[in-house]
Amino acid sequence: MQDNKKTGICGKLYMGLLLLFFYFPILYMVAFSFNETKSLSIFSGFSLKWYQRILKDSSMVSAIFYTVFVAVVATAVSTVAGTITAIGLSGCRKLLRKSVHQINNLPVMNPDIVTAIGLLMFFSVLTVKKGLATLLLAHIMFCIPYVILSIMPKIRNLDPNLADAAMDLGCTPMQALIKVVVPQIMPGIISGALIAFTMSFDDFVISYFVTGNGVNNISIMVYTMSKRINPSINALSTIIIVIITIGLLIANILPVINEKRRHKK
Questions:
Q1: 139, 169, 179, 220: least buried by Cβ within 10 Å?
Q2: How far apart are CA 193 and CA 126, in angstroms?
């Protein structure tokens, strides 16, 4: 019994230290985003001036806008394209399906720097002017594989006769897809969309290579600001953390609410 208690205490202590190691830098950054002075080691007093400075800085506001806009559009397009591709692959021959899976895994396995250089050369050969369009195309390109990977396990577990049964009962192929197949794989679609949004929102390497003058996202902005002491980085990073936390809460709470509604019915 004593050995079990010691093991339990050691396990809890280990988990506590591990969580502290992971989250202390984030909590430290959030705390000093409210620091009155530029010091990163001495807390001089509570202040919101670094957040106010973000709102007054047009370049920061522009970076936030481009980041959110690109992430939302890339998520929407990649989710639709990835869902259609995953459903289409489920009806293909095994050899073709395996080949496409291997091709789909390449962008995921490739280092970001390799993908970034490849896209840079591709846009240069086509003489496409780098800017918002190239940034958006690049984000859609690297988000689609993650959506497909998230949806495919759900499709494998799906009864292949569901769509045929729906059409036997009077549904058109499109109605069977929308009303029967899509609701069954919705958790995979949501997971893929969340991963796509996170990957797009967080990306730096690929964005840095494919964007043009005047079009920066938050990652590029933070990189340029990190070369000098600027507490606005802490404020900007805190805003990102808050947005991601709200998104995670919504993603976890909504399924619980839907489940409760189903039980009431």
A1: 169
A2: 30
State how far the Cα of 172 lies from the Cα of 85, in Å rounded to an integer: 20
Asked if residue 199 lies in contact with residue 144, where contact means CB atoms within 8 angstroms, the answer is no
The SS3 assignment for 130 reads: coil
For the stretch 22-26, contacts whose Cβ atoms lie closer than 8 Å and that sit 24 or more positions apart, written own/partner, are: 26/241
Provide the token pair at 226. 């990190």
Torsion over CA: 214, 228, 30, 194 (sign)? positive
Main-chain phi, psi angles of 46, to 5 degrees: -75, 135
Q: How far apart are CA 47 and CA 28, in angstroms?
A: 15
With contact defined as beta carbons under 8 Å apart, do 153 and 90 qualify? no
Assign a CATH topology to domain 49-255.
MetI-like fold (1.10.3720)
Instruction: Number of helices (H) and strands (E) in the chain: give both, helices first.
Output: 13, 0
Q: How many CB atoms lie within 10 A of CB 26?
A: 12
- Written as tens digits, the pLDDT of the chain (265 aa) is 555 666 677 778 888 888 888 888 888 888 888 888 877 777 888 888 888 888 888 888 888 889 989 999 999 999 999 998 888 887 777 788 888 888 888 888 888 899 899 999 988 888 888 888 999 999 999 999 999 988 888 888 887 777 778 777 777 778 877 788 888 888 888 888 988 988 898 888 999 999 887 788 888 888 877 766 677 888 888 888 887 788 777 777 877 776 777 776 6
Q: Which of 81, 190, 98, 89 is nearest to 145 (CA)?
A: 81
